[in-house]
Specification:
This protein has about 130 residues and is α+β, with helices and mostly antiparallel strands. It has two helices and five strands.
Length: about 130
């Protein structure tokens, strides 16, 4: 298995309106380190997993509308708990839709919430 990993980050604010989240129910900030790992069994005709420039730009495009935003105010997240796991899938789906015609493999998105906690979503790009 081959892979290429691209890294970026985003700072957001949000609240998690459920008793399960204790003090995180209140508005708070988070800074995520975001890794996008593109995986494939076979290299393409250029002997690459994916063009690193394309991967970098697609990760930036996926994160750009979220950076420095209060996610509670964004229409696409209305009524949703924007947990780290949820955001990992959201970023995955956004990038998958953008690279579907140019990449054959799977994508793993990891959001590092701190030096001790992170969440991942991984699925094939179809």
């Amino acid at each position: 298995m081959y892979s290429v990993i691209i890294r970026d980050h985003m700072m957001i604010a949000h609240s998690l309106d459920s008793e399960a989240f204790g003090p995180a129910q209140k508005l708070h900030g988070a800074t995520y380190v975001v890794d996008a790992e593109f995986k494939t069994e076979q290299l393409d005709e250029n002997n690459i997993v994916i063009d690193i420039d394309i991967a970098t730009k697609e990760l930036q495009k996926a994160l750009s509308p979220l950076k420095y935003q209060n996610l509670d105010n964004l229409e696409q997240f209305n009524g949703k708990l924007t947990t780290t796991e949820f955001l990992a899938k959201y970023v995955h789906d956004t990038i998958s839709n953008a690279v579907r015609s140019r990449f054959n493999g799977s994508l793993k998105i990891t959001l590092g919430e701190s030096h001790v906690a992170w969440a991942t979503y991984e699925a094939p790009i179809k």
